[in-house]
Design goal:
Layout (H helix, E strand, L loop, with lengths): L31 H5 L5 H9 L36 E3 L24 E5 L12 E7 H9 L12 H18 L4 H4 L5
Parallel strand pairs: 1-3
Antiparallel strand pairs: 2-3
Length: 189
């Protein structure tokens, strides 16, 4: 199982089994990284510009959402692991392990229910590996890092997580309810 630099497990054997498409990929199959940050890697940017900024993982005419990570079915010249600037951060606001949905309270300093969980860490010295992250609820995140729990385990949300989510939902609903100013403020005259 993959581990963090401090040796705690990240809950997966292969982070690339849990990726979608690169965050830098546009809907037209172009590499946004080469366009927006050519100064970071001039050689990479030059190669992409020579190929009309086409992402080398996505085959010509292929939908970017159909791009895959495996060598056998990759449509382009590369797979995601080959790209030096690959980044895939999960955008779904629910725990990938138990399915708990996020409930954020506006203007509140409360700790979020979901935390970003890194599946990929620096591999050798200062050379960072690809950024691959998913969302886990606080409870699943602790279980993955503190034990041999896996991201792919089929589990239900922790009872404490459900209680916290429902408490937030109740506060949301009470704030959305109508109360006249006379009812909200007890005036002493």
């Amino acid at each position: 199982m993959e581990e963090t630099p401090s040796g705690t497990p990240v809950g997966v054997d292969d982070p690339y089994d849990h990726v979608g498409v690169c965050d830098h990929l546009t809907d037209e199959g172009k590499c946004r990284y080469a366009f927006e940050h050519p100064e970071h890697d001039p050689e990479f940017a030059r190669e992409r510009r020579e190929d009309d900024l086409r992402c080398p993982v996505v085959a010509e005419g292929e939908s970017p959402r159909d791009a895959t990570t495996s060598d056998e079915t990759a449509g382009g010249d590369w797979n995601w692991e080959s790209c030096p600037h690959f980044r895939c951060r999960n955008r779904d606001r629910e725990c990938v392990r138990c399915g708990l949905a996020e409930r954020r309270m506006a203007h509140s300093d409360e700790r979020p229910l979901l935390e970003e969980h890194h599946l990929s860490y620096a591999s050798t010295g200062e050379t960072p590996s690809h950024e691959i992250t998913v969302y886990l609820c606080r409870w699943c995140h602790a279980k993955v890092h503190d034990s041999w729990a896996r991201v792919t385990d089929d589990v239900n949300p922790d009872p404490e997580a459900i209680a916290e989510q429902e408490a937030r939902r109740s506060r949301e609903q009470s704030e959305a309810g109508f109360a006249s100013a006379a009812e909200r403020f007890d005036r002493e005259e």
